[in-house]
Amino acid sequence: MKNKLASRHWRRTPAVALTALASLSLWLAPSPGRADWPPPLTATASDMKNPANWPNDPSYGYVASAKAGERESGQWQFYSFIPDRSPGAFVPQLNPGETAAGMSVDLAWRHTIGDDRVLISVLDSGIKWDEADLAEKAYLNLGELAAHPPLKADSSSCAPLDPAKPTEQLFDCNGDGILTVGDYKDHPGLLPDAEAGHPKGDWNKNGILDAGDLIDNPMFSDGVDDDGNGYVDDISGWDFFKDDNNAYDDTRYGHGTGEAKDSAAATNNDMGEAGICPKCRFMPLRVGDSFIADGQVFAKAVVYATDNGSKVVQEALGTLSMSGFAQTAMDYAYSRGTVIVASMADENSRHANVPATANHTMPVHAITMMATDESTTARSFLAFNNCTNFGAQNFLSASGTGCSSEAVGRLSGLSGLVYSMG
């Protein structure tokens, strides 16, 4: 994470409330998940320690063992409890007074796991469309796709997104009440045909049906600005770095994909890690080929995110410049109730990172485990993280094994949960 200038202003962030959806398998057939998840409101932190109350994502749970090779830290950042201690002579005592390993996300899930109307815009290096845990989470622009709605295999119309308007917005083929790429899987006009290792419509040949397939397919990217917003065929976000409609991470850098997973990965789908706001949707806005961006490009993406309904701008990046336009864009987002979750950066210093230090952002950094990288042997879960910046500009801290980038992702997801409650 790089950084440049400082703009020292005291800031207040907008109150929060947010978006999105669900689960999938490699072929976009939703996994049934654990039927009794999330737990009821009556569940306590002690109850959350019971694996019966965990989502079924393989990386979520911890394993305590005397054998180091058998230990699993799990997603301790989410826990409202302290994981069991691994037995052994060299396991240190936990610092007294600590009652939770993480941010008690599991308790928040009793109230909400998100809302598909809450949109998180991820301003970063773009998206790897082949990430199966995100495929059904990508926002699709109803305005651009109105001329090309999904159809059933027999060419009949799908159900309306809003049952109260039975003749409008016939976009729900899979019955989840949300427009996702999975609604298009049986479309009779979808090309190319299915073949070994590739579902029908796998235009980009990555093995799954994803938003990138719709973007690459000329049936959908038809050269018409259907929603009239000045961005032709912005079906799922925009590439502000190359100024086109495909936010694909063509360098395979992966930073933006990791960010989207931190905040909005599908949860309880028997795949990978849990996302913090599993029903929130994300919109990829590519602003660079890494986590370094030009300030003007960043500003354009902030305006786009705000105008297209994002409640959260997730930006784990640093810009090479800071301009009046960039500040105006952030002021505009703030005035529309959009929170900008910004990275303090990763130099282990008070060094100022822009745009985080600008007005109307919410700068964040990370705290971590002490003296270990295993949750079942940690001495503390409130340790200083020496790969993240600090100082008076910092607004919030997030539990994590990574640096400020992970903190941005996790706290963007938490912002999504707050918006969803609103």
> Helical segment tally?
9
What percentage of amino acids are in beta strands?
Answer: 5-15%
State the major sheet. Answer: 8 strands, mixed
Structural class of the secondary structure composition? alpha/beta
Low-confidence stretches: 1-30
Distance between the termini: 33 Å
Describe, in short, the structure shown.
With 422 residues, the chain is of the alpha/beta class.
Describe this structure in words.
The protein has 422 residues and is an alpha/beta fold. Helices cover 18% and strands 9% of the residues. It contains 9 helices and 10 strands. The protein has helices at residues 45-48, 105-108, 132-135, 142-145, 211-216, 255-264, 295-307, 324-335, 404-421, and strands at residues 119-124, 238-239, 281-286, 292-293, 312-315, 318-319, 339-343, 362-368, 383-384, 396-399. The strands form 2 sheets. Strands 1, 2, 3, 5, 7, 8, 9 and 10 form an 8-stranded mixed β-sheet that branches. A two-stranded parallel sheet has the order 4-6. Helix 6 (255-264) links the parallel strand 2 (238-239) and strand 3 (281-286). Helix 6 runs parallel beside helix 9. The chain starts with 44 loop residues before the first helix and ends with a helix. Mean pLDDT is 90; it is low at 1-30.
